[in-house]
Each structure stands twice: as C-alpha cells, then as structure tokens.
Amino acid sequence: MTERFLLRRALETDNVALSQLSQQTILETYVEDFSIPYRKHDIESYFRSSKSPEWFASKIVDPLQATWVVEEKISDELVAFAIAGPCKLSHSDVCSGEDGDLQFLYVRRDRRSHGLGQQLMNTALLWLEERFKGRPIWLGVWSGNLKAQKFYMHYGFSQVGDYYFNVGEWKLHTFIMRREHHSP
C-alpha cells in the first residue's frame, strides 16, 4: 500500500465504522454523484437491513467470505472496503457455492484516485481465485456507473446479464459481469 494507508482484513470491531462508511459511500455515489432520488425512508430501511453494524459483523465473521478495509493511518479512519464470497447472483451460468463474487467495493469520494480501489481489487481477486479455483468470478454494477464498469473491464470482466436491484420503490438497473478463470 502506501505510507498513508493500510489495507487489512476487517476485524469484528470494524463493524460500526464499516456501516458508517458504507452508508456514506452509497449516498455519495448514488444520491450525490448520480442524483438518484431515493426516498428517505427507502434508503434508511435499506441501510437498516443491509448495511447495519450487525450486518457487517455477520459478514466479517462468515468463514466463506472475506472483508477488507483500507484505513488511513493518520486518522485511523476507514476510507474504503471490499467484500467477496460465494456468488449468489441470479444468472443461469452461476454455480452457487462454486463461483466467486466481488460483492462490494467502495472508496470514499475524497480518497479516490489514490489507487485504493486497485489495491482492494487486486487483493479480492487473489482471494477469490484461490478460494474458487478454476471458476468464474462475478459481480454486479449499476448500469449508470460507466467509470466502475470500465474499471472492472480493465480486470477482464464483461457484461453477461442484468437485473433490477430494489431500494424501496426505486429500481436500479444492474449489470451482471463475469471474469472467466485465468490459467497461470
């Protein structure tokens, strides 16, 4: 990493900070950057069910998943995170339990362009390739986030399907991307 940042596996005690970081990065990305008009109670409900400290605690201790964080050394603040594990995307080619999935990768807006996303991506891909040997790796990315799609294509992912992800009444058109197994 760099002298300024530390990439590490998440600890159980990171769950509250991860919840806060997740909520911040989702609001920055979808509400502020892309002006998605989520209704307040819809996004709050989503955060309670899918981005709460308890939700993150369950991800961190799950032996089938891995959660990484990037911590800014000066402030001890978490500024980025990634979660990987078994693929649960709804696609006819997914072999549940056998294929890997990059479930989340978010970097706080004011810490982008420091290579943190690349470091998290490289770390997650190494873990996924080791854990799901010879199998494809999957992910979902919002159809309107062209920068993220380009980032994932750089790593060999291509679009193979789509679905709608609901946040309350709002439906996000999401692309399913897959990276085929790469032989050494």
From TrEMBL:
Gene3D superfamilies: 3.40.630.30. This is N-acetyltransferase domain-containing protein. It holds the Pfam family Acetyltransf_1. Residues 16-182 form the N-acetyltransferase domain. GO terms for molecular function: acyltransferase activity, transferring groups other than amino-acyl groups. InterPro entries: Acyl_CoA_acyltransferase, GNAT_dom. The lineage of its organism: Eukaryota, Metazoa, Spiralia, Gnathifera, Rotifera. Coiled coil: none annotated. Transmembrane segments: none annotated.
